Amino acid sequence: MDALPPQAPPAEALARLDALMARGAAFFGTRYAIMGGAMSWVSERNLVAALSNAGAFGVIACGAMEPDRLAQEIQGTQALTQKPFGVNLITMHPRLDQLVQTCLDHKVGHIVFAGGIPPGSAIKAAKDGGAKVVCFAPALALAKKLIRSGADALVIEGAEAGGHIGPVSLTVLAQEILPFIRDVPVFVAGGIGRGEAILSYLEMGAAGAQLGTRFVCATESIAHPNFKRAFIRGAARDALPTVQLDERFPVIPVRALQNGGTKRFLEHQAETIRRFLAGEVEKAAAQLDIEHFWAGALRRAVVDGDVENGSLMAGQSVGMVTREQPAVEIVQELVWQAAAAIAARQPA
């Protein structure tokens, strides 16, 4: 990323940006309507607190954590910031209800449900406990359904994002959803790496933006130096979705930087399919074998630094990550880029 401008954009431009961000910032209780994407092993107390302290909205990635472990992470984050932050819960977690209660017990103000449509009981429990509910909406019909179910805000995430992705780009989702959803704030996500992009979606009606990949190389991020170096070296074209070889053996699409592991996954699929066709393994066992290939791979990359065999989940905005820098500097850079774009429209 380019360095910060030598001076702040004009006050009028910053005020205009504040006005565009007002709804989203008020929803989170933050200075800026910039939400941290929940990235397993990366979005823990240090990065989450740093983002919130920088005026953005940090979000803990619960992932596969058990309730006791989540409680520790929430308390650890609260020890590092007095600012609002949220918790992202995966709807398929077998103890989703207990995780919701853990958030409520520790006064978490915002619960983000991801990885599927959350059960109505979980939404109700969160709202009854005083938390605001944020849900991911991959289509307009589902967006309306989630609002009817009680969602207080929505995130629309395009296929440009890192990790598990849907099939539709943010460019299209924004056109399909933003003009028609006004009841609740809608935050955009996927492939966003600069302030000018945030501005464009704000002017389309978004309440704010969620960014994940852009924050991986924050100084406060505990991601292994090897993991960060892979992001700094990576280009947009290097972040590709998982390839599925046979429709009989579906593979959940995950966008990640290509490495030795992604190549071996293709070989593993081919060999497993060969074994199935030869009658050496039953279909269910073959499917399980394919699904288990990446077990623990994200942790191996993020925590252990095994960037050759681990999973390097990254969005296409990875090409805009060029160095390690403090979270507050990244947030300010995004804000100033957006405000500078507003200022550039004014006649000299």
From TrEMBL:
UniProt keywords, alphabetically: Flavoprotein, FMN, Oxidoreductase
Reply yes or no: does the keyword Flavoprotein apply.
yes
Q: Which Pfam families does the entry mention?
A: NMO
Q: Which GO terms describe its molecular function?
A: nitronate monooxygenase activity
Stored SUPFAM superfamilies: Inosine monophosphate dehydrogenase (IMPDH)
Q: Which PANTHER family match?
A: 2-NITROPROPANE DIOXYGENASE, 2-NITROPROPANE DIOXYGENASE-LIKE PROTEIN
Q: What is this protein called?
A: Enoyl-[acyl-carrier protein] reductase II
Species assigned in the record: Falsiroseomonas stagni DSM 19981
